[in-house]
Predict the 3D structure of the following.
Amino acid sequence: MKKVILFACIIMITGSSFANAPKISEKALKAFKATFKDAENVQWSNSENLYAVKFSQQGINTFVKYDEEGNFISSRRYYNAQQLPVDIQCTLKKKFADRSIFGVTEYTIGDDVNYFVKMEDAKTWITVKIDNMRNIEVTEKYQKI
């Protein structure tokens, strides 16, 4: 009798785990697997006709959105200075020589890529936006306490 109750509990727990799993478009899943073969810690979610996947790859935390047909919509990636394109690294070192890079957020929508680089010195934090054309703009500045 105890075995029957234990088995029933296991079935209920397992079933409830799968019941809450999001339904993902086969085309979105196929596009993801073709592009990000070595993705780790993959977590999917969906709303309406959009499918979002959160994962890490080579130490970079990434969020990607697909439509129902598996077309790329957008991505957001978080990483450190070493993963920035070399030309951006050089420009930032030259323009902000007294600051160090704390972290990078890269937003991509279609062909448009923007980098938001958090930089710091002893007294302030700033956010520098770099667009496709390599235009640079300070978008935030905060005093450290």
User: Anything to note?
Assistant: The longest strand covers residues 100-109. The first helix runs from residue 2 to 19. The helical segments are 2-19, 26-35, 86-95. The CA atoms of residues 86 and 92 lie 10 Å apart.
